[in-house]
Amino acid sequence: MARLADYFVLVAFGPHPRGSGEGQGQILQRFPEKDWEDNPFPQGIELFCQPSGWQLCPERNPPTFFVAVLTDINSERHYCACLTFWEPVESTQEVVCNEDTTEKEEEADEGGQARLSSTAPAQPGQLFAPKTLVLVSRLDHTEVFRNSLGLIYAIHVEGLNVCLENVIGNLLTCTVPLAGGSQRTISLGAGDRQVIQTPLVDSLPVSRCSVALLFRQLGITNVLSLFCAALTEHKVLFLSRSYQRLADACRGLLALLFPLRYSFTYVPILPAQLLEVLSTPTPFIIGVNAAFQAETQELLDVIVADLDGGTVTVPECVHIPPLPEPLQSQTHSVLSMVLDPELELADLAFPPPTTSASSLKMQDKELRAVFLRLFAQLLQGYRWCLHIVRIHPEPVIRFHKAAFLGQRGLVEDDFLMKVLEGMAFAGFVSERGVPYRSTDLFDELVAHEVARMRADENHPHRVLRHVQELAEQLYKNENPYPAVAMHKVQRPGEASHLRRTHRPFPRLDEGTVQWIVDQAAAKMQGAPPAVKAERKTTVPSGPPMTAILERCSGPHINSARRLEVVRNCISYVFEGKMLEAKKLLPAVLRALKGRAARRCLAHELHLHVQQNRAVLDHQQFDFVVRMMNCCLQDCTSLDEHGIAAALLPLVTAFCRKLSPGVTQFAYSCVQEHVVWSTPQFWEAMFYGDVQTHIRALYLEPSDDRVSSSQEVGEAQSQDDERSALDVASEQRRLWPTLSQEKQQELVQKEESTVFSQAIHYANRMSYLLLPLDSSKSRLLRERAGLGDLESASNSLVTNSMAGSVAESYDTESGFEDAETCDVAGAVVRFINRFVDKVCTESGVTSDHLKGLHVMVPDIVQMHIETLEAVHRESKRLPPIQKPKLLRPRLLPGEECVLDGLRVYLLPDGREEGVGGSGGGPALLPAEGAVFLTTYRVIFTGMPTDPLVGEQVVVRSFPVAALTKEKRISVQTPVDQLLQDGLQLRSCTFQLLKMAFDEEVGSDSAELFRKQLHKLRYPPDIRGTFAFTLGSAHTPGRPPRVAKDKGPSLRTLSRNLVKNAKKTIGRQYVTRKKYNPPSWEHRGQPPPEDQEDEISVSEELEPSTLTPSSALKPSDRMTMSSLVERACCRDYQRLGLGTLSSSLSRAKSEPFRISPVNRMYAICRSYPGLLIVPQSIQDNALQRVSRCYRQNRFPVVCWRSGRSKAVLLRSGGLHGKGVVGLFKAQNTPSPGQTQADSSSLEQEKYLQAVVSSMPRYADSSGRNTLSSFSSAHMGGHVPSPRARVTTLSNPMAASASRWTASRGKWSSVRASGRSSGLGADVGSRLASRDLLSTPHTNGAPPDSGFLRPQRAALYIIGDKAQLKGVRPDPLQQWELVPIEVFEARQVKASFKKLLKACVPGCPATEPSPASFLRSLEDSEWLIQIHKLLQISVLVVELLDSGSSVLVSLEDGWDITTQVVSLVQLLSDPFYRTLEGFRLLVEKEWLSFGHRFSHRGAHTLAGQSSGFTPVFLQFLDCVHQVHLQFPMEFEFSQFYLKFLGYHHASRRFRTFLLDSDYERIELGLLYEEKGERRGQLACRSVWEYVDRLSKRTPMFYNYTYAPEDTEVLRPYSNVSNLKVWDFYTEETLAEGPLYDWELAQGPPEPPEEERPDGAAPQSRRRVVWPCYDSRPRVQPDAISRLLEELQRLETELGRPSERWKDTWDRVKAVQRLEGRQDGRGTSSSLLVSAVPHHRRSLGVYLQEGPVGSTLSLSLDSDQSSGSTTSSSRQAARRSTSTLYSQFQTAESENRSYEGTLYKKGAFMKPWKARWFVLDKTKHQLRYYDHRVDTECKGVIDLAEVEAVAPGTPTIGAPKTVDEKAFFDVKTTRRVYNFCAQDVPSAQQWVDRIQSCLSDA
Fold this sequence. Notes:
alpha+beta, 60 helices, 42 strands
């Protein structure tokens, strides 16, 4: 029982002490005057009576009533019911108070009057003062208080004959029951009667209608916002003009929070004087009168709910987390069903008759029921996460928040996280966590109704029914006896407050009231104390928790298959099947991203621990640690899923022995995870373990089966075992019955259990917090909670996957002092802080706690000492994880600059590397190292895919070929960590896309980049590999040269250069003249205007141009050495004159060799000796050269042997257009006359060229190019012989495209024609294509179309430059202006080609189309097409007898390409190995193609970039080679070889820009002068020669030239193929072009072989992407030559050169073919083949008639191999290839091969060639395979059996026993022996099948 009211107080208006206009409340009387002992009088009541302030009123207001709530220091709430009425303030009136008061009141009155006069009503003098009756109670019976105070007021107003003192006395002495659903009728002695009902359960709040009103005022969304705000501890402020509404709203909000109790500031009605409370930093729920709204505006973090306006305002800076979905939406919809039941029916066509809405009180309960259900859903299963830490003397309970969030699947949820961290929830745990107590509706709901709520989720009506059931119970709780509740209370009459007659409230007699109170107290003392009978029970735990929403965890949803993989991998590890485990490991690491797999791993590992210990070997240990690290790296600091908790016992169980007495445990390798340094994790773990042990303490010995899984301890009990809470409940029930000694004993036992666990955890924490190498003082980056805990990296022990570290926690959990101190101190402090916290909470005695503090430093120190030994020993261990670095093979003279940096080579978009179109498994990504040498960048490694682990992957390219290097950031393939990387692209079509391993520091990576850059762009050409190779001298000191008898070539070249310099020096005095920069500054691109500069110089002094007869002796030597150059040898071959003849001026020859440029004075980029017309004097050449760019005047480079037409080359003419004018300003003008003289000289020169032509050219009359068009109009059928490429558009021969700017030939103009001839060449060239029918496939028309009318000389020039050339007055030459691409276009096109062939990153959807599209975008093939087109035009003109001058750009790029191609197509000599070398030396090297500039060989050329002009030429040759495979002596491989090495800088051949520069460096003659012994080859030609002697890889076996053949290839883009040089790759050994390195891949190291594998067989799998097919699977001829060499070696004979063998075989075959006479001769055979097939098929010309060697090829099939033979030929049995003659009888050879046969009695074993003939049913044998005479026959009809045989005397020694077999016939037994077991089996099977067929 409790008092209904504690105090009755009368408060009246009093003037303010400071005399301000506002008054203040004064307590007139209070009853009882003494405070109750159990309940002191609350202070500040007078403020709450008039919350808006005490003010006088001009009119009489009706009485008001509200209940204010005060909270005292003990968090007890006091309800102050206030009834306020107004009394007139009059001076005449008797005021029951002392005079001072009256005076003060009067002053106040006047003040009040003055203030309120403006609003005074009819009686201006009348004012009214408020007076309040206050009832203070600890019970919340609002209606009873209202009735009671109303009764007192009614007695006073109505003047009833009732003593007020009695009524008040009765009120103060009235007692009511607290709870239990009883009702009590009370009367205050004024004829009244009131019934007080107490709720059934006092823990459920009483809300009456407050919740329903709150929803009506604010609406669903707003109330839900306020609900979430209050739960997540935000500040909530209610505004209303009504105090009662404010009180109700606050009460309603609190009722919604049940079962949580609001524990912050709660003031439903806040007085105006206390408004500053609103700026408190703590959360609150406060109500304030709306009049003070303005004062609340500046509050930034307060959520304001305006009840009158129905709005809730949330400030911007406040984020209210919403309820987790789907609860938010479910709650919202149920609330709308309760509040607006008609909403469901609004759309019905036939709505039911109006439904009766619930009463307000009922609706209130329904709304509360919705929230009760919400909490039950939210906190479902919370009891499973309670840790009972102590049972006696009082329960100590902790909640495992992380496990709860993890198991509910709400780890990310902001709302629940904040609720669980809040004070309300802490109160909930301590109040409701107790296992033995009385229960209420919520406990029932959360334990028993969860399944029902889950089932009802999708059935709104069932949900509503459940809500209504709950509402019934809540209503019943508040109103247990609804029918009886009848009140009878006197109320004042209507408008009684307006009566003027009534007197002021009288002063009451304190004595009377006090006497009544004392009487009641005496009575109470006599009565026994009323004890509230509590029904305590064990609180039900309910079902285990489930996730709120079954979410799939994205891509890591764990299927049973994945768990199976995890289990298998672990069992393999423990069974020692390491290779199997290694294969599964990547899949396991992927699976471990999922929760179930991590749990499965922990569970599986537990099974392998016996007696808390598991000793592993190094590899097992490493696997286990790796998997643990993978598990832990995804754990957050709180470990929601209990993974770290499950692994904690394991990390101290798994260990390995490092040496005797030194054991390393797994914990030393899994430390770098944030979870270990989180105090919350350790606390949860500690409490879990304590609970397990406390439970074990009270279980009966028979129950004492604590399984190891509970050691891990989330207190998840087995079915037959009671949970810790059940045990605790039982113990709490028994506690009162125990004796004191027993109680004391239990308390001590529990305390010591907690204490022992604290010691255990101090040890565990030191294990996981002390790094292995504690000597290092490196701060662990912000390790949470361990601000200054240093941690040494454990990477040397195992490849720790944990890179993750969390942000530091607040200073409470971390260390405040951040000074760097030793590791041990930091760990000791961390452990001490933990120990303090858990021991204080768990009630450990202070003595024990002190003992712990002493122990911790010793524990830590001991552990450090143990670790020192472990660390020392672990350093001696070889690191297991990383594969051994494979060292690359280096060339002789190649040195390593940077040793291997560990990297991963990533896929770069080529399909082959990932096992795409080429087939085979994915070789990339591969793990290995990148090496930098003086010559190459090399990657060597192994694929990370364990299925291909045995292969070695090599990818390399020359440093000089590097075109682009960029930094990238990529994921490493194994650990998926983001690492820095590099992407290197080379012009040899290799790409290294590398991710650095984590052990490679950024400084190492940076050093690699710098060194690479230094090697790629040396400051000087002498820094390149070709120069440094083999030179042992220090750079800078010239190498010593052996003394020669005479002056050495080196001195000679020095003299030569000296003379040249003198000459040039003189020249410089008179004029500035452009010259290519000397080699120190070479490579820097000259400024654009300089490049085209008109080089004009005055005539040289006579002395510099000495006639050749007066050569000085040193010059003579120079001349003789010049004569030896390639040019001269070629000129003599072509009959263009010898030096001697030109010296003796033999006039009969039209051309002569002029030494005018021997000092490189006229043109530095030309060779020393030039072919010029006989009639032109040397001194005139100087003037002619001025008209041409770079002084490259026209010189003859080739003469047709048949038509005697010559091919000339020169630089472009100097334009007289804008460019010329622009340049002219910079050059001193030589005066008009000189310019004129120059062009006159030019004309004279051209005239001389024309007149040097054979006379018959003129006799046939002049010619125009019109023949091109007229011949086409006839539309002849193409003859098989002739071929000229039509000048068609690059993409198609469609006429419509001719007019587009694409067709470069459409703009051809003939400015060298007189107007009389009408149409110009361009239109004619175009029109013949417009008018003629386009030939299929771009095939050339009949060769007969060139009519004998032609110009003697055609000048092919750039359209822009030919404008300045004067027309030829005699029309002997004709200009062909064409548009050509520039070098920069080649560069841009090549960049795109590189991107297309080696994309750099794998395509999203690889398709051939995307490659072809990017290939087309590059326009590379279009440029090839144009080059071939121009070349074929020139070939045609030369073939028809006209000479051609090619005069394009500067004369060293496109000119060189065209001139070289023309010679190659026209002259079969250049299609031989020797001739091609001559061609390149003459046209490319001597005539000054700028190799160094175009290849950006030095630092100076870095900006100009790589421009592959020479590579483009080789591609053109490759296209021609494909179309005419029998015309070339060299193979496709030769072209690739040159393509690779022209950019590699391995040889000196392709360095520098001209002969002049080579002489200046002393390179030109050293090849002959300095070759001493076996020096490394400096010249590529020398290297090719040496190699050709050893291997036929540069030779084309199908070479069968026709001497007179002029090649005219198709040039349409559709006929061109992409060169496989751009696309193919060999990952087995890197590029094949450094032959020394490609001697076969290194054998994998022995230990890499599979454990216990069988001996390796000779059989090999050939992968197109990995192996080099031509080498692994050579063509038939190469294989035969190899076989021959092998046999010769075996016989001990010196092996003869392959070339000799090949030539001899050809000769013999030719001879035999002739003698045999059967069939036609070989020449007839070839000519019988239709001619056009010569380009597409291949016939071995010298083959005999009956030969089956028809290596028929598709034109693109030969591209994959070094020789042009096809793969079918290689596979075909060699015997069929070389069975030259058919025997007399027509043979049918079903099967054949070599067998050893034992002769008849006493005869030896002999090898014979056996042929099995199914048709004739016999087994024949010959002496050898080419033998035509049969030596014997075994008739198969006579064979009885074929059986395994045994070796006899004299049998071959090396053969396996199982290779012997016997054939038993009716006559005798034949003994056979095959070469090996498989072939023996094959023979037996074949013979058996023949027998069975018979």
